[in-house]
Design brief:
By secondary structure, the chain is mainly β. The chain contains no helices and 4 strands.
Length: 85
């Protein structure tokens, strides 16, 4: 997802980043804001650069869907979750 000034002023201009989200913190924060954990992505190579934790406005997040013809990431095991746990 693209994180730029619409999500938080700290990501204005050349500080915007693409983040592959790995988790969303469920700790209560200010209304409309959330902590995301993930990896910043180099869009030219589609490779992860660094692990990041960011505090952003949900309304300002811009989600980019994976293209149907693109392969899933390699070396990543699927996450299995049980309901009711």
């Amino acid at each position: 997802m693209l994180i730029d000034v619409r999500a938080s002023v700290q990501f204005a201009g050349d500080r915007a980043l693409w983040l592959r989200v790995s988790s969303v913190d469920d700790t209560p924060t200010y209304y409309g804001w959330v902590w995301l954990t993930g990896y910043s992505i180099d869009m030219a190579t589609r490779k992860a650069l660094a692990r990041r934790e960011v505090f952003v406005q949900i309304a300002g997040l811009q989600i980019q869907r994976r293209k149907a013809d693109s392969a899933p990431p390699r070396n990543v095991a699927p996450v299995m979750r049980r309901r009711g746990v």
